[in-house]
Amino acid sequence: MESKTLEEPLHLENGKDEIIFKVQPRRLASIDFIKGVAIIFIILAHTSAAWFSPEWVFLHGIVYIFLDIMGPSLFIFLSALSVVFSINSKKGRIPDRIIRNNIFARGSMLILVGALINLFLLADDTFFPLSLWGWNIIFFLGFSQIFCYYSLKFKKSTRIVIGLLIIISSELLRELIWNLNVSGNLLGTILFLMIDSYENTVTFLPWLSICFITTIFGEYLYEAMIDGSNEVYHRLFNIFMVFGVILVVFGIISGLEVVNCSNINCYLYRLNLYIIANRQPFLEIIGVWKFLLRGTASNMLYNMGTSLLVMGAGFYLTDIKRKDNIFIRMVKFYGKVSLNIFLMHYVWHPLFMVMFPIWYFPFTCLAYGAFLGFLFYFWMKYANYIGTPEWLMGQVLSMGKKPNKRKK
Q1: How far apart are CA 115 and CA 246, in angstroms?
Q2: CA–CA separation, 263 vs 12, rounded Å?
Q3: Do residues 13 and 98 make contact, with C-beta atoms less than 8 angstroms apart?
Q4: Tens of pLDDT, residues 324-335
Q5: Potential cystine with 335: which of 31, 35, 96, 228 (Cβ 3.0-4.6 Å)?
Q6: pLDDT tens across 144-153, in order?
Q7: Which residue from 344, 396, 390 is spatially nearest to 105, judged by alpha carbons?
Q8: Does the pLDDT of residue 38 top 80, yes or no?
Q9: 3-state DSSP call for residue 202?
Q10: How far apart are CA 311 and CA 248, in angstroms?
Q11: What is the sign, positive or negative, of the torsion defined by CA atoms of 237, 238, 240, 245?
């Protein structure tokens, strides 16, 4: 199995030039493929919420009560895997200090972008500068880069314990902090703003657990990529599927309680999909299973298990079976530009706000997704991504860096 190629020599500056040749493993196609799947579901979710007419928006609620796992949680799961790859691929080639600084710089830039997004999301909920702080997806991704870096310093067994403790204790801690906040306790208010905030798409707790648990599977994935053999690939596939099933089963069993605004805090646990799903005259939905409610312990287990199963399926399809066709290549391309698409897909939402009935929406959404793909394809081909959000972030990160000066 040809999986490794010789990398170009790498020059490091630490008083003198060092030339290191390193064997570069074959890039795993499944990472980009599943990232592409996640960003497609995110586009579909956000456009359906914005573009469905009032009579049809209930479909968004009903469908995404069940498909929420395919959007933000899968995207964050894959981003954590990418941090592991980024760190491990540079170990031994680049000083640890530079690796740390790069992770911190990228994380800080994502936090800054997330803070700017919060200015628009929280304009009516709070005042500046508090409106900068809120756990939207990009804001959390920035922090997750940093926490993933530090979580890798713990042994795998320690990370499992920490991750599970975060999941198990999060509901109780958040309820306690909420009660302190509403009672006017200053410490409770500060902790509420730090952990939940006014924008609680993916709150600090329990989502922090992903940084500890996902990095374990990221290391297994990286080790398999380095080995490159079919035997190791199949063993890794079995790990993904077995642990995925275990987490999904535990998540479902522990979250079979039906919840609604009468028996759970509607602010802490986003019941907006349940509320939207009831905007129809046909059937009253009395609640949702707790394992489908974002932010609960059972949902966190269910989300991570589902992400492992989806990742395992993608790994089997694209890395073990090496399937490759125009559809898979398209989805992989969406994965490679997923952050750019995520940051820019909101731009055209105002064009068709609450406009489309069900018979127009699928064609419009499909055309919009294709438009974003073609946009970044031609942006790559003719402008080499210059001017894209990720390019702009890279330019900001490079500011202030000293140019390399080699001794001659």
Answers
A1: 36
A2: 59
A3: no
A4: 999 999 999 999
A5: 35
A6: 999 999 999 9
A7: 396
A8: yes
A9: coil
A10: 14
A11: positive
Beta strand 10-13 with 17-20 is antiparallel
Residue 110 C-beta-side C-alpha neighbours within 13 Å: 22
Give the amino acid at 11: H
Q: Taken in order 91, 389, 47, 131, is the CA torsion positive or negative?
A: positive
Burial class (CB in 10 A: 0-12, 13-18, 19+), 40: buried
At 297, list the tokens. Answer: 């312990």
Contact 41, 259 (CB under 8 A): no
What is this structure's pTM? 0.87
Distance CA 251, CA 211 (A): 18
Q: Which two tokens stand for residue 213?
A: 């648990």
Give the N- to C-terminal CA distance of the chain in Å, as an integer. 41
Closest CA to 335 of 150, 148, 81: 81
Cβ count near 338 (within 10 Å): 24
Find all residues with CB under 8 Å of 344, minimum gap 6, and list them. 372, 388, 389
The closest alpha carbon to 109, from 142, 87, 141, 135, belongs to: 142
Tell me the pLDDT tens digit for each residue of 374-383. Answer: 999 999 889 8
Predicted local distance difference test score (pLDDT) of residue 7: 44
CA torsion angle 371 73 141 115 (round to 10): 70
HEC per residue, 106-122: HHHHHHHHHHHHHHHHC
**Looking at residue 317, what DSSP letter applies?**
I
387 burial class (0-12, 13-18, 19+ CB within 10 angstroms)? exposed
